[in-house]
Amino acid sequence: MVGSGNQTGQSVARSRSPIGIVSGGGSLPFAVADAVTRDNRRAVLFPLRGCASPGRVARYPHHWIGLGQINRLSRLARQEGCADLVFIGSVVRPTLAQLRVDFGALALLPRVAEMFRGGDGHLLAGVAKLFEQRGFTVIGAHELAPEILMPEGAIGCLEPDAANRIDIALGLALLRSIGQFDVGQAVIVAEQHVLAVEAADGTDEMLAQVASLRRKGRIRSPGGVLVKAPKPGQDRRMDMPTIGPQTIAGAARAGLSGIAVLAGETIVAEAELVRQAAERERMFVVGVRGG
User: Fold this and answer.
1) Are 283 and 259 in contact (CB under 8 A)?
2) pTM, entire model
3) Pairwise CA distance, residues 177 & 183, whole Å
4) Average per-residue pLDDT for the chain
5) What is the per-residue pLDDT for 118?
6) Are 121 and 241 in contact (CB under 8 A)?
7) N or C: which end of the chain has fewer CB within 10 A?
Protein backbone atom coordinates (compact mmCIF):
# COMPACT_ATOMS: atom_id res chain seq x y z
CA MET A 1 0.00 0.00 0.00
CA VAL A 2 2.88 2.35 0.74
CA GLY A 3 4.24 1.81 -2.77
CA SER A 4 0.83 2.51 -4.26
CA GLY A 5 0.55 5.75 -2.32
CA ASN A 6 3.99 6.89 -3.47
CA GLN A 7 3.12 6.16 -7.07
CA THR A 8 -0.08 8.20 -6.77
CA GLY A 9 1.83 11.08 -5.21
CA GLN A 10 4.40 11.01 -8.00
CA SER A 11 1.61 11.01 -10.59
CA VAL A 12 -0.06 14.03 -9.01
CA ALA A 13 3.27 15.88 -8.77
CA ARG A 14 4.03 15.06 -12.38
CA SER A 15 0.62 16.24 -13.58
CA ARG A 16 1.23 19.71 -12.07
CA SER A 17 4.78 20.09 -13.36
CA PRO A 18 5.56 22.71 -16.02
CA ILE A 19 4.56 21.88 -19.58
CA GLY A 20 7.16 22.09 -22.33
CA ILE A 21 5.58 23.20 -25.61
CA VAL A 22 7.71 22.49 -28.67
CA SER A 23 6.37 25.19 -30.95
CA GLY A 24 6.13 25.34 -34.70
CA GLY A 25 4.44 28.09 -36.68
CA GLY A 26 0.96 29.54 -36.32
CA SER A 27 -1.19 30.56 -33.37
CA LEU A 28 -1.85 27.15 -31.81
CA PRO A 29 1.25 26.93 -29.56
CA PHE A 30 0.18 30.18 -27.90
CA ALA A 31 -3.42 29.02 -27.48
CA VAL A 32 -2.11 25.91 -25.71
CA ALA A 33 0.28 27.96 -23.56
CA ASP A 34 -2.59 30.24 -22.51
CA ALA A 35 -4.77 27.22 -21.64
CA VAL A 36 -1.95 25.76 -19.52
CA THR A 37 -1.53 29.08 -17.73
CA ARG A 38 -5.27 29.31 -17.01
CA ASP A 39 -4.96 25.88 -15.41
CA ASN A 40 -2.35 27.34 -13.03
CA ARG A 41 0.52 25.44 -14.59
CA ARG A 42 3.70 26.94 -15.99
CA ALA A 43 4.13 26.81 -19.77
CA VAL A 44 7.65 26.92 -21.22
CA LEU A 45 7.93 27.30 -24.98
CA PHE A 46 10.67 25.66 -27.04
CA PRO A 47 10.13 27.48 -30.36
CA LEU A 48 11.70 26.03 -33.48
CA ARG A 49 13.95 28.42 -35.34
CA GLY A 50 12.56 29.29 -38.74
CA CYS A 51 9.04 28.18 -37.79
CA ALA A 52 7.74 30.06 -34.72
CA SER A 53 6.93 33.77 -34.62
CA PRO A 54 9.58 35.64 -32.55
CA GLY A 55 7.24 38.50 -31.65
CA ARG A 56 4.66 36.28 -29.99
CA VAL A 57 7.19 33.90 -28.42
CA ALA A 58 8.74 36.77 -26.46
CA ARG A 59 5.64 37.00 -24.22
CA TYR A 60 6.31 33.54 -22.73
CA PRO A 61 9.20 31.81 -20.95
CA HIS A 62 11.10 30.22 -23.81
CA HIS A 63 14.29 28.70 -25.21
CA TRP A 64 14.90 28.68 -28.96
CA ILE A 65 15.93 25.34 -30.46
CA GLY A 66 16.83 24.12 -33.93
CA LEU A 67 15.38 21.14 -35.73
CA GLY A 68 17.48 18.17 -34.67
CA GLN A 69 18.68 19.64 -31.36
CA ILE A 70 17.48 16.64 -29.40
CA ASN A 71 19.99 16.92 -26.58
CA ARG A 72 19.48 20.66 -26.17
CA LEU A 73 15.70 20.26 -25.91
CA SER A 74 16.03 17.39 -23.43
CA ARG A 75 18.51 19.27 -21.27
CA LEU A 76 16.58 22.55 -21.20
CA ALA A 77 13.25 20.82 -20.55
CA ARG A 78 14.74 19.03 -17.55
CA GLN A 79 16.26 22.28 -16.28
CA GLU A 80 12.79 23.86 -16.43
CA GLY A 81 11.24 20.91 -14.60
CA CYS A 82 9.13 19.85 -17.60
CA ALA A 83 8.09 16.22 -17.30
CA ASP A 84 5.53 16.57 -20.10
CA LEU A 85 6.11 17.71 -23.68
CA VAL A 86 3.60 18.92 -26.27
CA PHE A 87 4.45 19.20 -29.98
CA ILE A 88 2.19 21.71 -31.75
CA GLY A 89 2.33 24.13 -34.68
CA SER A 90 3.16 23.97 -38.36
CA VAL A 91 6.53 22.64 -39.51
CA VAL A 92 7.66 21.98 -43.06
CA ARG A 93 9.15 18.50 -43.06
CA PRO A 94 12.92 18.88 -43.47
CA THR A 95 15.21 16.53 -45.29
CA LEU A 96 17.58 14.47 -43.21
CA ALA A 97 20.45 16.59 -44.57
CA GLN A 98 18.78 19.78 -43.26
CA LEU A 99 18.74 18.57 -39.67
CA ARG A 100 21.47 19.88 -37.41
CA VAL A 101 21.64 17.09 -34.86
CA ASP A 102 23.51 18.36 -31.81
CA PHE A 103 26.73 16.73 -30.68
CA GLY A 104 25.30 14.72 -27.81
CA ALA A 105 22.70 13.13 -30.07
CA LEU A 106 24.98 12.09 -32.95
CA ALA A 107 24.71 8.46 -31.87
CA LEU A 108 20.99 8.69 -32.71
CA LEU A 109 21.61 9.49 -36.40
CA PRO A 110 20.98 5.93 -37.69
CA ARG A 111 17.72 5.84 -35.76
CA VAL A 112 16.70 9.29 -37.01
CA ALA A 113 17.50 8.22 -40.57
CA GLU A 114 15.17 5.23 -40.18
CA MET A 115 12.42 7.56 -38.92
CA PHE A 116 12.67 9.51 -42.17
CA ARG A 117 12.04 6.37 -44.25
CA GLY A 118 8.27 6.69 -44.30
CA GLY A 119 5.43 9.15 -44.16
CA ASP A 120 4.82 11.91 -41.65
CA GLY A 121 2.94 9.60 -39.29
CA HIS A 122 5.92 7.24 -39.10
CA LEU A 123 8.31 10.14 -38.52
CA LEU A 124 6.24 11.79 -35.79
CA ALA A 125 5.62 8.50 -33.99
CA GLY A 126 9.38 8.00 -33.95
CA VAL A 127 9.94 11.47 -32.47
CA ALA A 128 7.43 10.75 -29.70
CA LYS A 129 9.06 7.44 -28.86
CA LEU A 130 12.50 9.02 -28.81
CA PHE A 131 11.53 11.54 -26.14
CA GLU A 132 9.51 9.00 -24.16
CA GLN A 133 12.62 6.85 -23.92
CA ARG A 134 14.38 9.88 -22.45
CA GLY A 135 11.86 9.98 -19.60
CA PHE A 136 9.36 12.53 -20.91
CA THR A 137 5.63 12.04 -21.35
CA VAL A 138 4.37 13.23 -24.73
CA ILE A 139 0.79 14.48 -24.52
CA GLY A 140 -1.60 15.89 -27.08
CA ALA A 141 -2.26 19.62 -27.24
CA HIS A 142 -5.99 18.90 -27.25
CA GLU A 143 -5.67 17.18 -23.86
CA LEU A 144 -4.54 20.50 -22.36
CA ALA A 145 -6.73 22.76 -24.48
CA PRO A 146 -9.85 20.81 -25.51
CA GLU A 147 -11.43 24.06 -26.68
CA ILE A 148 -9.24 23.94 -29.81
CA LEU A 149 -11.10 20.85 -31.07
CA MET A 150 -13.84 21.11 -33.69
CA PRO A 151 -17.30 20.51 -32.17
CA GLU A 152 -20.00 18.50 -33.89
CA GLY A 153 -22.21 20.61 -36.14
CA ALA A 154 -21.68 23.82 -38.03
CA ILE A 155 -19.51 26.78 -37.13
CA GLY A 156 -21.62 29.70 -38.31
CA CYS A 157 -25.04 29.80 -39.91
CA LEU A 158 -24.58 27.65 -43.04
CA GLU A 159 -25.07 23.88 -43.27
CA PRO A 160 -24.13 21.40 -46.01
CA ASP A 161 -27.02 20.31 -48.25
CA ALA A 162 -27.84 16.72 -49.22
CA ALA A 163 -25.44 16.72 -52.19
CA ASN A 164 -22.64 18.11 -50.01
CA ARG A 165 -23.23 15.35 -47.45
CA ILE A 166 -22.82 12.70 -50.13
CA ASP A 167 -19.50 14.29 -51.09
CA ILE A 168 -18.46 14.39 -47.42
CA ALA A 169 -19.22 10.68 -46.99
CA LEU A 170 -17.20 9.87 -50.11
CA GLY A 171 -14.30 11.98 -48.88
CA LEU A 172 -14.24 10.27 -45.48
CA ALA A 173 -14.36 6.83 -47.09
CA LEU A 174 -11.45 7.73 -49.36
CA LEU A 175 -9.37 9.05 -46.45
CA ARG A 176 -9.96 5.83 -44.51
CA SER A 177 -8.77 3.84 -47.51
CA ILE A 178 -5.58 5.77 -48.25
CA GLY A 179 -4.71 6.48 -44.62
CA GLN A 180 -3.16 3.04 -44.21
CA PHE A 181 -0.42 4.20 -46.58
CA ASP A 182 0.40 7.23 -44.37
CA VAL A 183 -0.71 9.60 -47.16
CA GLY A 184 -2.59 12.85 -46.63
CA GLN A 185 -5.34 13.96 -44.29
CA ALA A 186 -7.49 15.81 -46.81
CA VAL A 187 -9.36 15.42 -50.09
CA ILE A 188 -11.57 17.66 -52.21
CA VAL A 189 -14.77 16.19 -53.66
CA ALA A 190 -17.34 17.81 -55.95
CA GLU A 191 -20.44 16.05 -57.29
CA GLN A 192 -18.98 12.70 -56.16
CA HIS A 193 -15.86 13.41 -58.21
CA VAL A 194 -12.51 13.46 -56.39
CA LEU A 195 -10.74 16.65 -57.47
CA ALA A 196 -7.59 16.39 -55.34
CA VAL A 197 -5.88 14.35 -52.64
CA GLU A 198 -3.46 15.93 -50.17
CA ALA A 199 0.13 14.77 -50.44
CA ALA A 200 3.45 16.12 -49.16
CA ASP A 201 2.60 19.67 -50.28
CA GLY A 202 -0.17 20.00 -47.68
CA THR A 203 -3.72 21.34 -47.65
CA ASP A 204 -2.95 24.93 -48.66
CA GLU A 205 -1.06 23.86 -51.77
CA MET A 206 -3.80 21.38 -52.67
CA LEU A 207 -6.38 24.17 -52.48
CA ALA A 208 -4.17 26.45 -54.57
CA GLN A 209 -3.85 23.73 -57.21
CA VAL A 210 -7.63 23.32 -57.43
CA ALA A 211 -8.03 27.10 -57.70
CA SER A 212 -5.51 27.14 -60.56
CA LEU A 213 -7.26 24.27 -62.38
CA ARG A 214 -10.57 26.09 -62.02
CA ARG A 215 -9.12 29.26 -63.55
CA LYS A 216 -7.82 27.23 -66.48
CA GLY A 217 -11.21 25.58 -67.01
CA ARG A 218 -9.86 22.14 -66.15
CA ILE A 219 -12.43 21.70 -63.36
CA ARG A 220 -16.03 22.32 -64.32
CA SER A 221 -17.86 20.74 -61.39
CA PRO A 222 -19.31 23.61 -59.32
CA GLY A 223 -18.63 23.94 -55.62
CA GLY A 224 -17.11 21.01 -53.79
CA VAL A 225 -16.08 20.15 -50.24
CA LEU A 226 -12.72 20.01 -48.52
CA VAL A 227 -12.82 16.96 -46.23
CA LYS A 228 -10.18 16.44 -43.52
CA ALA A 229 -9.74 13.52 -41.12
CA PRO A 230 -6.88 11.83 -39.27
CA LYS A 231 -5.34 8.70 -40.69
CA PRO A 232 -6.36 5.37 -39.13
CA GLY A 233 -3.97 4.61 -36.27
CA GLN A 234 -2.48 8.10 -36.37
CA ASP A 235 -0.83 9.27 -33.14
CA ARG A 236 -3.19 12.09 -32.15
CA ARG A 237 -0.65 13.42 -29.63
CA MET A 238 1.74 14.44 -32.39
CA ASP A 239 -0.42 15.26 -35.37
CA MET A 240 -4.07 16.08 -35.93
CA PRO A 241 -5.76 17.64 -38.96
CA THR A 242 -6.01 21.42 -38.55
CA ILE A 243 -8.00 24.20 -40.16
CA GLY A 244 -7.82 27.94 -39.64
CA PRO A 245 -8.66 31.25 -41.33
CA GLN A 246 -6.07 30.53 -44.02
CA THR A 247 -7.93 27.32 -44.89
CA ILE A 248 -11.16 29.28 -45.39
CA ALA A 249 -9.38 31.74 -47.68
CA GLY A 250 -7.84 28.94 -49.73
CA ALA A 251 -11.14 27.07 -50.01
CA ALA A 252 -12.87 30.26 -51.18
CA ARG A 253 -10.25 30.83 -53.89
CA ALA A 254 -10.77 27.21 -54.96
CA GLY A 255 -14.50 27.89 -55.36
CA LEU A 256 -15.58 25.35 -52.74
CA SER A 257 -18.95 25.31 -51.01
CA GLY A 258 -17.57 24.30 -47.64
CA ILE A 259 -15.29 22.33 -45.34
CA ALA A 260 -16.08 19.18 -43.35
CA VAL A 261 -13.82 17.73 -40.66
CA LEU A 262 -14.13 15.03 -38.04
CA ALA A 263 -15.62 16.47 -34.87
CA GLY A 264 -13.42 16.00 -31.80
CA GLU A 265 -10.49 14.88 -33.97
CA THR A 266 -9.62 18.08 -35.79
CA ILE A 267 -8.02 21.24 -34.41
CA VAL A 268 -9.49 24.63 -35.27
CA ALA A 269 -7.03 27.51 -35.03
CA GLU A 270 -8.66 30.85 -34.14
CA ALA A 271 -12.20 29.49 -34.23
CA GLU A 272 -13.93 32.88 -34.10
CA LEU A 273 -11.94 34.13 -37.09
CA VAL A 274 -12.83 30.91 -38.89
CA ARG A 275 -16.53 31.53 -38.23
CA GLN A 276 -16.33 35.12 -39.41
CA ALA A 277 -14.40 34.19 -42.56
CA ALA A 278 -16.78 31.32 -43.38
CA GLU A 279 -19.84 33.55 -43.08
CA ARG A 280 -18.19 36.27 -45.13
CA GLU A 281 -17.42 33.75 -47.91
CA ARG A 282 -20.89 32.12 -47.61
CA MET A 283 -19.20 28.80 -46.90
CA PHE A 284 -20.17 26.07 -44.42
CA VAL A 285 -17.70 24.65 -41.92
CA VAL A 286 -19.00 21.56 -40.19
CA GLY A 287 -17.78 18.94 -37.74
CA VAL A 288 -19.12 15.46 -38.57
CA ARG A 289 -18.97 12.02 -37.01
CA GLY A 290 -18.31 8.72 -38.66
CA GLY A 291 -14.63 8.78 -39.63
Assistant:
1) yes
2) 0.82
3) 10
4) 86
5) 63
6) no
7) N
